[in-house]
Specification:
By secondary structure, the protein is an alpha+beta fold. The protein is built from six helices and 19 strands. The protein is globular.
């Protein structure tokens, strides 16, 4: 029996995307804090504790507190925002991506009710979708998984939308097929995919490789979504250019002279 609100949608844009959800009367969508863009007049906005899902295992205030508290481990807020159509006809609410990339629409009903995704990937969903936490239970994965250690799980049978940086590749893994991937490049994967962490190995790779000591392995069967530009990589590059003397285009030849010539050194 379908428990989630059924919503229609369209994804707008190319590199800076937004998703427009069309709600029938009394239908509700939930959005991550800071993802709201615009809405029709008849849409009512309400801040809710947790994700608003009807999870029988989290009944009562204490259960809701524990459920919402897990979101803190993924770097998210205790609260989410619910948008309900209080009018008598279809109305729209739009959510925007936080940085350049793509929005991925996930139909949980067609994916056996569960998707595992990066902890900052969730954007919005139909009300009833549960946004929880997924620990990688293996010791090696827990100690060295980096961005891939604590992940979100989206459960239910409605539509959910996640955001990825840069370009998105979809890969359908066959049984036993395995790919090695940077942990930050993982966006999401279905629950049948086996996830682990592997040591790169080799003294030269360890010291001079610049790619970290570990990468993730994803083994089929199942579907995976991969992003070309993780937000952590983008932030790191911006930070490197923001530091004093961090202008790479002048290299070691011009150095501070290049800054002086264009006025930065004054």
């Amino acid at each position: 029996m379908i428990q989630n609100h059924e919503i229609d949608y369209r994804i707008i844009g190319e590199e800076m995307q937004c998703v427009e959800l069309e709600l029938d009367p009394q239908e509700t969508a939930i959005g991550e804090s800071g993802s709201f863009m615009m809405m029709d007049r008849e849409i009512q906005m309400e801040t809710i504790f947790g994700d608003g899902s009807n999870n029988n295992n989290n009944s009562g205030f204490l259960g809701k507190l524990m459920s919402a508290g897990k979101r803190l481990l993924t770097g998210e807020s205790l609260f989410m925002t619910a948008f309900t159509n209080s009018g008598n006809s279809k109305k729209r609410v739009t959510f925007a991506a936080p940085y350049p990339g793509k929005i991925i629409a996930l139909d949980l009903y067609r994916m056996n009710g569960k998707i595992i995704c990066q902890k900052d990937a969730f954007l919005c969903a139909a009300k009833g979708v549960s946004v929880g936490i997924e620990f990688q239970r293996k010791l090696g994965t827990g100690l060295f998984g980096g961005e891939g250690f604590i992940m979100q799980k989206l459960e239910g049978d409605g539509m959910a939308f996640v955001h990825a940086g840069g370009h998105v590749l979809e890969r359908e893994l066959q049984p036993g097929e395995l790919i090695k991937i940077d942990t930050g490049c993982i966006v999401a994967f279905t629950q049948t995919v086996h996830y682990d962490i592997q040591f790169i190995g080799g003294i030269k790779n360890t010291i001079f490789g610049g790619e970290g000591l570990f990468f993730a392995t994803l083994e089929g069967p199942g579907k995976v979504w991969i992003q070309s530009l993780p937000i952590s990589r983008l932030a790191s590059r911006i930070m490197s250019y923001g530091r004093v003397g961090g202008r790479k285009e002048e290299g070691s030849i011009l150095g501070g002279l290049g800054n002086l010539l264009d006025g930065d050194g004054i």
